[in-house]
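hey can u check if this looks right to u? its 370 residues, i copy pasted from the old doc so theres a chance i mangled smth
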Amino acid sequence: MKLLHTADWHLGKTLNGKNLIDDQYFILNQIFDIISDQNPAVIIISGDIYDRADPSIDAINLFDEIIFKLTEKKVPVLCIAGNHDNSDRLNFGSRLFANENFFITAKTGSKPKNIVLQDDFGEIFFSLIPYFAPEEIKSEFLPENDDKITFNDANKFYIDLARKNIPKNKRSVAIAHVFVEGGEESDSERKFVGTTGKVSAENFFSYDYAALGHLHKPQSISCDKIRYSGSPIKYSARESTHKKGITLVELGKNGFISAENIFLKPKRDLIEISGTLADFLSQPVNYAYAYVTLTDNKFVYDAAQKLRTVFPNLMEAKNKTRPKGFVEEPARKFRENATIFEQFEDFFMEMTNRQLNSEEKTALKEIFGG
């Protein structure tokens, strides 16, 4: 069975105020071409369909068009909510869409959803594990437990629950939106506090393939069968070196066989580039989303205005050289290996020149859980 694994579309995303909807239409049309060329048996969307919990009308219309085109192809689509999605909104119409083999799971349930599909070798169980906060699992399944649970605890609990409905010796695929420990992040994923948002790759070892979403760089974690497809478009400067695409996976009689990244070509690239103003002004117009650092020996004033003649889609202009008379403020220092609570204590002291009182400490410990 061929699986086409994609994730982190972030429909409606803006970059420094620039609406990327045209770029998203362009790249999703490429994905449709790949679907026509590869004829996968299943299409997987591992969360973060939208960029915001209240998506724009343009984003909603684009997803509506995608649903229509995918259902026309008569290929099962398995889709989950990510941490950027509003589970209630994404869940709208899901029972109706299921009649067209478009399965959306946006919320956890007392019985985790497993979709069973067939190939020449028999049944394959697909566990749809949407993004959830640990508190959701605790309140639904462990209300009598006074202890707080971590993302890893909650993830392991829910996967164990899902696997109770998968017969032994049956092939299985997990579809999840999580931050697996060891993964390389960029700076456009929504961050969790500290390391509490990370889960262990071991949670997915019992599956023949784990189709993950959340991290925007295509990568495997721990082994080839636990993978992030990455986002189809570059969404931050740190992603400028990523090769974006989708992942084509093949399962055989005994489970995982291979995974291949199929690269996509954006309408406009996103680049980080450095050089002198004179060098740039001598070049032809470049329509990439550009993060530019000027290396001139003298500070260039109005750099952005000057660079936009070459880079109409300039995202950021920086000078490597400081202006004359510039005095850099000392970097704020935190205690080594400090918790987020301790960092806030240091920050509060620096800003107010006094320590937190006992009432403030108690309130903050409740907020930070420490």
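The chain has a mean pLDDT of 91.
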